[in-house]
Design goal:
about 375 residues, alpha/beta, 17 helices, globular
Length: about 375
């Protein structure tokens, strides 16, 4: 391959991927463009750059780049798949489905195109189509990490696979995908105000005296509300890109890209733990409550939201989020030495025009 300034295109690709993983998207774009300038007919670089442009919300730029790449290599499955992703981001549903279906026809061994189209159908509300593709994935790869879980959620058939917790990479991928538009989508379209409501229920004075953990911190929406109360504010999230956007706020003393149990394992004498719309992606909460109870100091507070289950302790819903029963939460609290200070019903957000009913809890050790 042609080399640019002594650095090969492959080395530039590796560097750009590292930059993207750290959330340095502008730098990654510059590096990918250098690689493409050095190897202008390298369709793989065009695919990677196109997907990055989608992440940077330059959808028109991504589509233009990837359509030109498809002209160079129309039989190359990754370019069809990347173009389908760009079309989907731009709201071009028919074009997205057609491109992804082309990738499926061209690649008869991999599950990736099937998975990408299935998730597009899920986001578009086409459950039947998604289920059909997920079943094809399981037939092709019975040990697939995500498809059985997604099938269980969409069909309600929980007998074939464990659904007490989601595959961690599924949650990280979900929030990586939405990291650029997540906050605006939540606050403007879904009328989301759980962080404000939780902090109001805690009822403490904003005296900057507390050691606070923000579990599943996302882009830092809860952190903004918590900062006035915190002497130290620690956030964690599974999504690298969410953590990168939270870092840009400059409000956290520490940020970690990891599972919440890893964050809690290092924590001691915590005054306040907040988990705003986090347990809906966890499922069974026994291990989480154990870790929170250990991390809290005597008198420390745990504040969180859950979607409401009227019957089962916890249940995976067709939305692929979990709902939890009031009795289950209270039983766990009692078992872990946590008293219920407050439990209030709440509309957590608006989803497809319908209010999502849930509960806000404040527990004290």
């Amino acid at each position: 391959m042609k080399r640019s300034s002594g650095v090969s295109p492959d080395e530039l690709i590796a560097l750009a991927q590292q930059q993207a993983e750290r959330g340095e998207l502008a730098a990654a774009e510059t590096t990918y463009r250098k690689a493409l300038a050095a190897a202008p007919h390298h369709v793989g670089i065009s695919c990677l750059l196109g997907l990055l442009l989608v992440d940077r919300e330059d959808v028109d730029g991504a589509i233009d780049l990837l359509e030109r790449a498809r002209e160079l290599a129309p039989e190359f499955p990754p370019v069809q798949l990347a173009l389908g992703t760009a079309y989907a981001a731009g709201g071009h549903d028919d074009l997205a489905v057609a491109a992804m279906e082309s990738a499926i026809k061209l690649d008869t061994s991999s599950t990736v195109p099937l998975e990408r189209l299935a998730k597009h159908h899920i986001r578009s509300g086409r459950t039947r189509e998604a289920i059909g593709l997920l079943r094809r994935i399981v037939r092709r790869d019975p040990a697939h990490a995500q498809a059985p879980f997604l099938l269980a959620g969409l069909t309600g058939d929980h007998t074939a696979t464990r659904v007490d917790a989601p595959p961690p990479d599924l949650i990280a991928e979900l929030f990586d995908t939405y990291s650029t538009s997540f906050e605006q989508h939540l606050t403007e379209r879904l009328e989301y105000r759980v962080p404000k409501d939780l902090v109001a229920l805690v009822g403490a004075s904003p005296d900057a005296s507390r050691h606070v953990l923000d579990l599943g911190c996302g882009t830092g929406l809860a952190g903004v509300e918590l900062r006035p109360y915190a002497r130290t504010l620690v956030g964690s999230d599974l999504s690298p890109r969410m953590v990168a956007r939270a870092t840009q706020r400059g409000i956290y003393d520490e940020l970690h890209c990891e599972d919440l149990l890893a964050t809690l394992a290092r924590a001691h004498e915590v005054d306040l733990i907040v988990a705003a719309d986090v347990f809906i992606y966890v499922g069974a909460l026994e291990a989480t409550f154990t870790a929170c109870a250990i991390a809290l100091r005597p008198g420390g507070t745990l504040a969180f939201s859950v979607e409401r289950s009227e019957r089962e302790d916890f249940v995976l819903q067709p939305t692929l989020r979990y709902a939890h029963a009031d009795a289950y939460i209270r039983r766990l609290a009692a078992a872990h030495g946590l008293g219920v200070v407050c439990a209030e019903p709440s509309v957590l957000r608006v989803d497809n025009g319908r209010p999502v009913q849930g509960d806000l809890f404040v527990l004290a050790k």
